Amino acid sequence: MRAPLGNFDDATPAPDCLDQLVAPVAAAVRAWRGDVPADQLVYVDTDPEIADTAAFVETYGRELLEQSANCVVVAGKRGGGTTLAACLVLSHTRVDVNGAVRKQLGARKASFASMDTATGESGMEYGGITPVGLPAGWPLLVDPAVVDTEWVLVGSGRRRGKLILPGKAFAALPGAVVVDGLGV
What are the YbaK/aminoacyl-tRNA synthetase-associated domain coordinates in residue numbering (predicted)? Predict the structure, then answer.
């Protein structure tokens, strides 16, 4: 199979390589429902040693700079409680944590979650967190630019490998809310 974007040697429909995915991501792919068929979720093998954006796009394709999205975990605090959420923005933008995220979560304060919290709560590796397979109940805040991109490269739940999905699929993930102004 050829990946819909990038120059990857190894591309496979995600349902055919569940053993390459961390448990929560594999479970989400196994239970996939919606307008986008599961076989349109593509897993591509990548070298975890060249995960840095500059080296990654040089190796796998310059167009990936405009077609990749970052998924980050944030913590919104109000009173004594904390709400964890994931935010998905195109990789050439940044998450508006103090504006759009704080407002959407109804938090007094919002910040990026610590690495230990992000990995421990998501069951995914740092640098590979993906919106596919997030914990139940987590809000997934998605920038409209991600949804409007034909194909989007995101993490696979671990540092080795990535997932490629149609952008519109992210709006249909559990807990997804499209938030104007999320990526700035």
Answer: 48-169
Nearest-angstrom CA–CA distance, 174 and 29:
12
Could you report the per-residue pLDDT of 20-32, keeping only the tens digit for each? 999 999 999 999 9
What is the phi-psi region of residue 48: left when phi exceeds 0, alpha when psi lies from -120 to 50, beta otherwise? alpha
Tokens linked to 48 = 């975890």
* DSSP state letter for 10: -
- CATH topology assigned to domain 11-178: YbaK protein (3.90.960)
Contact 147, 113 (CB under 8 A): no
Other Cβ atoms within 10 Å of 48 Cβ, number: 12
| Sequence spans of domains, the chain | 11-178
pTM above 0.85, yes or no: yes
Whether 165 and 24 have beta carbons less than 8 Å apart is answered as no
43-101 tens-digit pLDDT: 999 998 887 777 888 999 999 989 999 999 999 999 889 999 999 999 999 999 999 99
Q: Which among 61, 87, 48 is positioned nearest to 2, based on CA atoms?
A: 61
Number of Cβ atoms within 10 Å of the Cβ of 40:
16
